[in-house]
Specification:
The complex is a heterodimer.
Chain A (H helix, E strand, L loop, with lengths): L1 E5 L1 E10 L3 E3 H4 L7 H11 L3 E3 L7 H14 L10 E5 L10 H9 L6 E5 L5 H12 L7 E8 L19 E9 L5 E8 L7 E2 L17 E2 L5 E2 L5 E2 L1 H23 L8 E4 L4 H11 L10 H4 L7 H10 L2 H4 L1 E10 L3 E10 L3 E6 L1
Parallel strand pairs in A: 2-17, 5-6, 5-7, 14-15
Antiparallel strand pairs in A: 1-9, 2-8, 3-4, 7-8, 9-16, 10-13, 11-12, 15-16
Helix pairs in contact in A: 3-4, 6-7
Chain B lengths: L1 H11 L19 H15 L16 H10 L5
Helix pairs in contact in B: 1-2
The chains are: A alpha/beta, B mainly alpha.
């Protein structure tokens, strides 16, 4: 599905990372791999250091910390926030929405919209779409898009498929109306027939958590995980991404009347270095235009990996310069989505530690 | 080309005799992470980038299918 939005802009991006760093080498003994094989895999996939939230830290904690920082620095004013969107797969509660909890924490005005969206790897793009749509309203001028995931407690430490790459993080993106006319192009597709390609089987209504769902079992590849843990069909997800993402990007650029060379950066979801290198090659895009260094430095925090890639790779440069950026997210759902938009001299673009 | 492929496979999983087997993935000689390491090595050795849509188990079944895969992606002996 092609989408188009007029006269919207991103004015700031802040990424919040837990201070706690875990090294791949320190976890190698958890996996049924020889050290030599693990180290080869480290090179290919880009495993190195991932950031893991401390015990009891919730998605709201990271978001509140980030918003506090922006309020204190005068980069955001409480009374200007007309909508608070939180995209997360790790809410504080089943109910109420965590966005309401955050609104309450800061005693933000009542005359506003709070909403949680349950989305993962494509969650940044879907959050942007939602922000753009809300900004069509006369009374909504500034949307705070929060992306946050603390999924490390839901990943088995003995799962070599998922544990080396998981990261916890949050991001705050400010989305506003633009006085300068501009067009933003988007594209989204979904395939719920493969809903179990990335899934936490237990803990919801379908299979409530119990003593039984917390027991570790060994799979055919020698990974140990419980039904309470995230399970990923890695091969299926890889094949889906390689098959579906390149044509989506081609279609997005064609609709926008742009060439691949026109795009300054391809800021994609960061599943691992190997997958992104293959995507860049398939698209015929120089690898340096599609950064793939988030997993190795911070881990993959689902949809948060996209703003993290922007903050880490462009940093303050984006407060002085303007870039045409193609964003893309793909994974849980299955969902794959992309946005082509110009980012003009942001008010802030940085990373802080929680 | 077969010799180089055989060397890469042996370096990857020295415990197996790849010359004697014909279905590497199904018989458990290569798991999905071995395939990633194998593709990385093949890309490097032959100066190519194997298309992501070609990274399917059937293309890693034998030295012959791997050779075909490398050639399809522009690799030369």
């Amino acid at each position: 599905m092609n989408l188009k939005f007029a006269n919207k802009k991103i004015t700031g991006i802040l990424t919040i990372l837990p201070k706690n760093e875990v090294k791949f080498e320190d976890e190698m003994d958890n996996y049924n791999f020889s050290h030599a094989k693990s180290l080869k895999l480290k090179m290919a996939m880009g495993y190195n250091t991932h950031r893991i939230a401390g015990e009891g830290v919730c998605s709201s904690d990271l978001c509140i910390y980030g918003l506090d920082y922006l309020f204190e620095k005068g980069l955001l004013k409480k009374e200007e926030i007309d909508a608070l969107i939180l995209v997360t797969q790790s809410p504080d509660y089943f109910m109420p929405p965590t966005s309401n909890v955050i609104q309450g924490h800061f005693a933000l005005k009542q005359d506003m919209i709070c909403m949680d969206i349950n989305q993962g790897c494509a969650g940044y793009i879907i959050g942007l779409f939602e922000a753009f749509m809300l900004l069509e309203q006369d009374e909504i001028n500034k949307v705070v898009l929060l992306n946050a995931d603390v999924l490390s407690p839901k990943v088995s430490m003995r799962d070599r498929n998922s544990n080396p790459l998981i990261g916890d993080a949050a991001a705050v993106t400010i989305v506003e109306k633009s006085d300068t006319p501009c067009t933003i192009f988007g594209n989204i597709k979904m395939d719920g027939t493969a809903f179990d390609a990335l899934i936490i089987p237990a803990g919801g209504s379908k299979l409530p958590s119990s003593l039984e769902t917390s027991q570790l079992h060994e799979d055919a590849s020698g990974n140990f995980r419980a039904l309470d843990h995230l399970v990923m069909k890695g091969d299926d997800v890889f094949n889906f991404v390689q098959r579906e993402v390149p044509p989506m990007i081609e279609q997005l650029l064609t609709t926008a009347g742009c060439t691949k060379e026109d795009v300054d950066y391809y800021m994609f979801h960061q599943p691992n270095k190997f997958m992104l290198s293959k995507l860049a090659d398939k698209l015929g895009v120089p690898r340096e235009k599609m950064p793939n260094n988030i997993v190795e430095n911070f881990g993959n925090a689902s949809g948060v990996s996209i703003p993290t890639a922007v903050s880490y790779n462009l940093g303050a440069t984006l407060t002085r310069e303007s870039f045409l950026i193609c964003f893309a997210g793909f994974g849980v759902g299955l969902t794959w989505a992309s946005v082509l938009m110009r980012l003009n001299k942001l008010d802030f673009n940085e990373i802080i530690n929680f | 080309m077969e010799k180089i492929i055989a060397e890469i496979l042996t370096n990857l999983r020295p415990e197996f005799d790849f010359a004697a087997e014909t279905n590497f993935v199904e018989q458990g000689l290569l798991d999905s992470f071995d395939v990633i390491n194998l593709v990385t090595e093949l890309d490097k050795q032959f100066g190519i980038s194997i298309d992501g849509t070609d990274i399917l188990p059937e293309n890693f079944a034998s030295i012959e299918t791997i050779k075909n895969l490398v050639q399809k992606n522009g690799g030369k002996s």
